Amino acid sequence: MGSSPDRRPPSADPAGGFAGGASAPAAKHVGVEAPPARAPGSVDEPVVEVVAGVIRDARGRILLARRTEGRDLAGLWEFPGGKREPGESAEAALARELREELGIEVELGAPLIAVPQRYPHKRLRLDVRRIASWQGGAPRGLDGQALAWVPPAKLASYAMPPADRPVVAALLQTDRYLVTPTPADDKAWLEGLQRALAAGVRRVQLRAPGLDAARWRRLCAKAIGLCRKAGADVLVNGDAALAAELQVGVHLRAAQLPRLEARPLPPALQVAASCHNAEELRMAEALGCDFAVVGPVKATATHPGTPGIGWSAFAALRERVSLPIYAIGGLAPADMAEARDHGAQGIAAIRGLWS
Question: Residue ranges under compositional bias (Basic and acidic residues) (predicted)?
C-alpha cells in the first residue's frame, strides 16, 4: 500500500475550533478491532468493518473527530463513527456509535461510499453514510476526543488516515468522468460533448488516438472552452506538453508511468492515470496523481471477448492505495451505487456517458 506523508495535525483555536493543518490530500478512518468479515478479493483474511457519518451543521461545515492517544494513528482526524459489532447492521452500528461518541440521536441519510483499505496490521472496510439530521444538541466529544467543524473546501488540509482520502473526494468531486470518443465529424463531436455536459458531466478526458495533431489541438481548444463554460474539469490524454500549453490536466496512460520520475504538471493542473494492477496504482500514487482509473470492470464493446475483472478484483486493487479511483469498462450511471459500494469515486466511460 502506498503510504501517506506525515502531516502535522491542525492546531487548537481559542474559540474551540481548529485551524487547518499542512496541506495534503486527505485519507481515512481507522477502526478499532472489529468483527471478522471477508475482504473483497480475499478468502482468508478478516476485515474490520467500520461505519462513519458525514454530519453537517447549518453552515454546511462537516464534523471531524481527532483520534485520541493510545489508539492507532492517534492525532489524525476522521469522520465520527466506529466498529460494527457481530450481528449488528451498519445502520444500527452508526446510530449507536454516534450516540456513544457524540451524545446525539441521528436520522441516517443516503450511503456515500464504502472504502476497502489495507493497512500494515489489518484490513478494513469503511462504510460512510450521510447524516440527514440529529437531535440532542451540539455534538460533544464524550470520549475526550477533539472535534472540529470544517468547511468542505478545507477537508483536504486535515491529516487523516488513508481510507479518508476517497471519502473526501466522494464529498467534493464529481462521480462521472467522461472519456471522449474519437471524432469522425468535428461539429458532431462538439455537439455530443455539449450534450454530455448538459447531462451533468463535470470531468472530461479529451482522447482521440491517431487524430492529426494540428486538428486535435484546434478541437481541444474548442472543447476546453465548452468545458470551462460548464464548470467541468478537463484533462488531455497522454500529452503533458499539450496539457501545459492549454493549461488543463493530463491523463497518463499506464505505459507512461514507469518512464516518469516526477509529476509532469504543477499542482494547479490535475494529473490522472489509467491503471490495471497494484504496481501501476502504486506508481500513480508515488507520482502524486490526483486520481486514477481502474478496469475494465465489465466486458466492453471495444474489447470483445475480453472479460472484465469484476467488482471484487476492483475492490482488492482499491484497498492498496488511498487515491480516488474511477471504475471503467462497460459501465453507465446505473452502475453508480455498486461502484460506490466497492470504493469507487464513480464511473469513467465513453459510451455510457457520451450517449
Answer: 1-10
pTM: 0.86
**What are the Cα distances from residue 343, in Å, to 61, 164, 337?**
24, 11, 10
What is the 3-state secondary structure of 80-109? CEEECCCCCCHHHHHHHHHHHHHCCEEEEE
Tens of pLDDT, residues 247-294: 999 999 999 999 999 999 999 999 999 999 999 999 999 999 999 999
Tens-place pLDDT, residues 174-200: 999 999 999 999 999 999 999 999 999
Give the pLDDT confidence score for residue 4 in this predicted structure.
33
Query: Cβ distance 146 to 65 under 8 Å?
Result: yes
- 47-163: CATH class: alpha beta
- Alpha carbon dihedral 209, 246, 156, 277, in 10-degree steps, equals 20
Determine the angle formed by the axes of helices 186-198 and 213-230, rounding to 10 degrees: 20
DSSP string, 280-301: HHHHHHHHT-SEEEE--SS--T
- The domain locations on the chain are 47-163, 176-353
Is residue 54 within 8 Å of 130, Cβ to Cβ? yes
Contact 51, 98 (CB under 8 A): no
Query: Radius of gyration over alpha carbons of the chain, in Å?
Result: 21
State the Cα–Cα distance between residues 179 and 182, nearest whole angstrom. Answer: 10
Q: Which CATH number fits domain 176-353: 3.40.50.200, 3.20.20.70, 3.60.15.10, 2.60.40.10?
A: 3.20.20.70
- Whether 47-163 and 176-353 share one fold: the answer is no
**What residue type is assigned to position 202 of the chain?**
R
